[in-house]
Design goal:
This protein is α+β, with helices and mostly antiparallel strands and 312 residues long. It has three domains: 60 residues, no CATH class; 94 residues, Homing endonucleases (Endonuclease I-creI, Roll); 126 residues, Homing endonucleases (Endonuclease I-creI, Roll). Helix content is 45%, strand content 17%. It contains 15 helices and eight strands. The strands form two sheets. Strands 1-2-4-3 form a four-stranded antiparallel sheet. Strands 5-6-8-7 form a four-stranded antiparallel sheet. Keywords: Mitochondrion, Signal. This is Homing endonuclease LAGLIDADG domain-containing protein. One of its GO terms (molecular function) is endonuclease activity. It comes from Monosporozyma unispora.
Length: 312
């Protein structure tokens, strides 16, 4: 049996296999017959967790973890996992000191402060750019954070980093759960790598919600749950972009998801303007004479849209 976590372990954690191999070199393996018997007995054992399914069914696999971690269903923790998958980083210094870093726009200090309040850590300005960085390296704080997001980290770059940190902290990494509309991960990822914009096409406004990533499968989750489509953009060294543009898809995202899992970045202000956008679009306020109240409402909407960081 196998799975994405098994592949990641083989690629990034070769030392993790040592505990799996040593128990097999025992007196019971003195002959080929006893070896076959031992392996067969292990293969016949029942699997008790999803993560064990991906690694195999041997007792030695189960024995290499010291504690069981429960997947958090807390909305904040799900959101945090999505944010880390998009804008975060798990690191190890000197082979023993773990850390987590998240970089966001300076206007999103409130979002990073909410993480700091829960797990500790520091927030500092990035020199030369309009960004701030959250950093956590306290061991107990890292243990709490890893347990909070365990089972929801899934990004191609972040998952290998996460697994390395898990093993160093003696925490069992859990295979990512299947994403549904009842998971705050999407909100966190949009806070990190998503956009909500509108542009004029054929003298008509077109609203778009999108999320981008270098790898297709890292945005495929959005299409699977919310529909829309994905295309490849060759600019900026190439990336995949998921988008929804129809009023039906956007309003479904807003009413069925965003109201239950609001964003924590400045982008949420634009989501709050979605109903007003469609109200003004349907009356074609943008086409009315400049001296009418309808056109003035459109101008006011545009001021709010362009300065959305000031209306939170």
């Amino acid at each position: 049996q196998g799975g994405p976590l098994l592949w990641v372990m083989m690629m990034y954690c070769p030392m993790c296999w040592k505990p799996l191999l040593i128990p097999l070199i025992t007196s019971k393996m003195s002959t080929m017959a006893s070896t076959v018997k031992l392996l067969k007995e292990e293969d016949d054992q029942p699997v008790t967790t999803k993560f064990n399914t991906s690694l195999g069914t041997s007792e030695t696999t189960r024995a290499m973890y010291n504690k069981t971690t429960i997947i958090s269903k807390d909305k904040f923790n799900q959101w945090l996992a999505g944010l880390i998958d998009g804008d975060g980083y798990f690191g190890i210094a000197q082979g023993k000191y773990t850390s987590c870093e998240i970089t966001m726009d300076i206007r999103d200090e409130k979002a990073l402060k909410s993480i700091q309040d829960k797990f500790g850590g520091s927030i500092k300005l990035r020199s030369g750019i309009r960004a701030i960085r959250y950093r956590l390296h306290n061991k107990q704080g890292m243990i709490n954070l890893i347990n909070a997001v365990n089972g929801n980290i899934r990004n191609s770059k972040r998952l290998p980093q996460f697994i390395k940190v898990c093993y160093l902290l003696n925490i069992k990494p859990i295979q990512p759960v299947e994403l549904t509309m009842d998971n705050g991960w999407f909100a966190g990822f949009i806070d990190a790598d998503g956009t909500i914009t509108y542009s004029m096409k054929n003298n008509t406004p077109q609203l778009t919600i999108s999320a981008t990533n270098k790898y297709l499968h890292d945005v495929q989750y959005f299409e699977n749950v919310f529909g829309g489509y994905i295309y490849y953009d060759k600019s900026q060294n190439g990336y995949f972009k998921w988008t929804i543009q129809s009023e039906k898809d956007i309003m479904t995202f807003f009413t069925d998801y965003n109201k239950n899992f609001p964003l924590k970045s400045m982008k949420q202000s634009r989501f709050c303007l979605i109903p007003n956008y469609y109200y003004l679009k349907k009356m074609k306020a943008y086409q009315q004479p400049i001296n009418t109240m309808q056109y003035k409402l459109w101008l006011k909407f545009n001021d709010q849209w362009k300065n959305y960081d000031n209306i939170m």
